[in-house]
Design goal:
167 residues; mainly alpha; Arc Repressor Mutant, subunit A; two-stranded antiparallel ribbon; 6 helices; 2 strands; elongated
Length: 167
Amino acid sequence: MTRLSGSGDDSASGPGADPVALALEIADAVESLTDLWTVAAQGAGLRLSPHQLRALRVLESEPGLNLTALAERMEMGLPTASRLCDRLEAAGLLERVVHPRKRREVQLRLTGHGRQMLDEVALRRAHALAAVLAGMDSPAREALQRGLPGFLAARGRDAPGVDSAGH
């Protein structure tokens, strides 16, 4: 877990709670959500690593990237990105296509199977999250729903200590 203080009571309470204490609680929730996300994704028809899933998501949002651009988006070296794409291509999730105007450039595109896998993972994750949300009482669920837009709006701005890539 993320608890950094050993005081025993570092939970945020009430409106206007200490942002650091609240951040620690949220960090614990994010760890739990990450575990839920990973387990749900691993139940899909084809087991994909987090890097493989992320590469597919990048290519879904930016079809036709070349290998160099994908490596940059994923902040990894070119050889690592190449091996990642080799595995995705071997699994039938990705295809390499010659750029229509730049014959020396190869574009990376999701296959129909790659799109299906992303849809399956998204659906499995939504069901897993829905099960957790269903276990919350209605006021807690509503409070979470009310707070999310403010969180996302603040995250969209440059937060101190966080670059635009989320680091």
